[in-house]
């Protein structure tokens, strides 16, 4: 597969793809596919096992079959989206079903794929979803708000530092606000730049503002 220069594939080693599908063959195939792309993977054939794994570690990408052991996955899709974690959710279908596909997209699914999967398109769709991992908005005070999507490897403190950097605060100002030293802010800043693939602070802000 051709590497997209705007897609930071080296981060895949810290990303988790979680699959819920009753068919063990599908689970195995998807696990192999995404491990070859460098991802960590986990899969379950029952909703109970999926929830256990999900609670232990939030995945970066979720793939849900529309029906698992007779359960309707639409409410689970809605539940994940209502968490506002930004996790891309792809729906898997044992057969083509236009109505369910439309309903899934209405509920903000990132995509719907019917079996047999086009592996190239599926991987490309996941890449596209993860490429949109940083989004910027503005709050009522005119400050930028940053939503991190698919970057569970950023610690809460690193997210706070990224927020303050994006709002133009210096190391000293950010340190004063967070109650830590400017040197510690610089360490966090360096780690954030490494994880987002930024060469310097200006490049980091460019990545955030253009994502």
Number of strands: 9
Tell me what the CATH architecture of the largest domain is: 3-Layer(aba) Sandwich
Average pLDDT figure: 79
Form type: elongated
Report the CATH superfamily of the largest domain.
Response regulator
- Major β-sheet, in short? 5 strands, parallel
Summed up, the helix count is 9
Strand order of the largest sheet: 2-1-3-6-7
Plain-language structure description:
The chain is built from nine helices and nine strands. The protein has two domains: 9-131, Response regulator (Rossmann fold, 3-Layer(aba) Sandwich), CATH 3.40.50; 134-210, Winged helix-like DNA-binding domain superfamily/Winged helix DNA-binding domain (Arc Repressor Mutant, subunit A), CATH 1.10.10.10. The chain is elongated, with a radius of gyration of 19 Å. It starts with 15 loop residues before the first strand and ends with a helix. With 211 residues, the chain is of the alpha/beta class. A five-stranded parallel beta sheet has the order 2-1-3-6-7, sandwiched between helices.
Q: Could you provide a short overview of the structure?
A:
It is built from nine helices and nine strands. By secondary structure, the chain is of the alpha/beta class. The protein has a five-stranded parallel beta sheet, sandwiched between helices. The chain has a two-stranded antiparallel ribbon with strand order 4-5. The protein has a two-stranded antiparallel sheet with strand order 8-9.
